[in-house]
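TL;DR need structure tokens for one chain.
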Amino acid sequence: MADTKIGSQSRPAAIRVFEAIYEHGVLKPLEDPGLTENHRFSVQVQELGEPEAQPRKRTFGSAKGLIKIADDFDDPLEDFREYM
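>> reply
TL;DR here they are.
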């Protein structure tokens, strides 16, 4: 690991890797990166692509009125009369 020089002090550089999302001009980490507030950091950005779409939550009864079942749905079928 390379040393970094901050002011007059030299310290070993710590490397942390975490994922983040860029929204509305702000880079938002998906987890706590464990960084100290009010310190400066060097950031390297690598685009990982589009996030996977989250499936919509199903709502009970959302298809009500969209499906019609015939009144004779439970009646025996003509094609099977000889087997009954």
